[in-house]
Amino acid sequence: xxxxxxxxxxxxxxxxxxxxxxxxxxxxxxxxxxxxxxxxxxxxxxxxxxxxxxxxxxxxxxxxxxxxxxxxxxxxxxxxxxxxxxxxxxxxxxxxxxxxxxxxxxxxxxxxxxxxxxxxxxxxxxxxxxxxxxxxxxxxxxxxxxxxxxxxxxxxxxxxxxxxxxxxxxxxxxxxxxxxxxxxxxxxxxxxxxxxxxxxxxxxxxxxxxxxxxxxxxxxxxxxxxxxxxxxxxxxxxxxxxxxxxxxxxxxxxxxxxxxxxxxxxxxxxxxxxxxxxxxxxxxxxxxxxxxxxxxxxxxxxxxxxxxxxxxxxxxxxxxxxxxxxxxxxxxxxxxxxxxxxxxxxxxxxxxxxxxxxxxxxxxxxxxxxxxxxxxxxxxxxxxxxxxxxxxxxxxxxxxxxxxxxxxxxxxxxxxxxxxxxxxxxxxxxxxxxxxxxxxxxxxxxxxxxxxxxxxxxxxxxxxxxxxxxxxxxxxxxxxxxxxxxxxxxxxxxxxxxxxxxxxxxxxxxxxxxxxxxxxxxxx
Length: 524
Prior knowledge:
Elements lengths: L2 H32 L2 H8 L7 E2 H14 L2 H4 E6 L6 E7 L12 E6 L5 E5 L5 H11 L6 H26 L3 H4 L9 H15 L1 H15 L1 H12 L4 H8 L17 H11 L4 E8 L7 E7 L9 E6 L5 E6 L6 H14 L5 H28 L15 H33 L4 H23 L1 H28 L9 H28 L10
Helix pairs in contact: 1-5, 1-6, 1-14, 1-15, 2-5, 2-15, 6-9, 8-14, 9-13, 14-15, 15-16, 15-17, 16-17, 17-18
């Protein structure tokens, strides 16, 4: 391949990477945690109600429907993770809500004397906050608008991947596993960037393509509508919606027992594992039971769904049950599964966590390489050079945004844990601490310069991350804060992350003292 061609592809790779790098760092860092979003939510906001044994749930539902008219319109039965032998019953406090709406909920249990005890449930929003951060790269805009913007960014990201591979091809065999340690710090970062980027390339290609589909799905459907669907795509979606499978019928009819409803689903899809039932219009012939669950043997949506008639037990829609999806459903579901890692169980989730964090490193190191390569050496190195303002600003933005994101996410996780303990809604606090950390970090880097700001920002990120395992000590002092057992894993991962950040701080301090004086990373 001609050198001129390589040079052009290198320019494409560099500029698309620079334009997208900071947004993609936030998306990948938060996205790595999104794989464990349900566990994060349970860790931050443990159950405040005791679980009801499954054989007693029907009595609890009957008593709730008798005393609380709202439950006849909608209520939920969430199953435990030990085989569905116990459950929690709850409903929206202010009337019916869609599954994706985050509204105040109340829950109920049967007291020892058979009476109904109703309590307000805490907000469980940490996983949702991390997912929104992932989808919008932290832009303070509407989720749909942020997702569309990230769809465009992902398209540029795909171009950067392809052009980077073309640039690397000539030296692929010779330099693939070479990471040169020594005085040339830039050479080390380039080797590490190339190695991690190439090893993770299939994962990055999958994420790029699926992100384009998610972010620009409305635009894609708008193009397909007149050609493929003869302008009737909206009507088609309405007809095929699983929630329209049961027609309203107000004639009274008893709701079948929860165990019977679950058994009907198991008979239809033996490997489907329900975790929640959402029941609407209970006590009528038109009772609709949405059974949400998972089956990690298949490439499926982030969660599966079967719809059952609550009065007859007939399973009326299985379009979103992983093992029963049709061709179109399986194709669309594959995009979700490959993006979110909702298949293959725990090994795949841990793999996505590692690959997501490695992806964040690729974007951070890519920006560092560009910044260092902008150093303008004078001809024949006759003297030191003066860095341009654009190079200083880009360096400051890189360390400010990336390290501010790390600190902000850690502080948001802490807020998500502490606020429910104090009886407060965690979401405003999560937003406040994340954006405060981000803005302060960027401002500090711009004022102090990248060189002088990096070490304090790394220390701040390490401290914020170390606070997560320190919450384990807080839980000892506050017995009401009994977290999810999976929190031990989260706290261990956070501790390792804090140690790595401290190591980076020490390495950055050495570079500050001993690096080239004409580098943007020099404090001289």
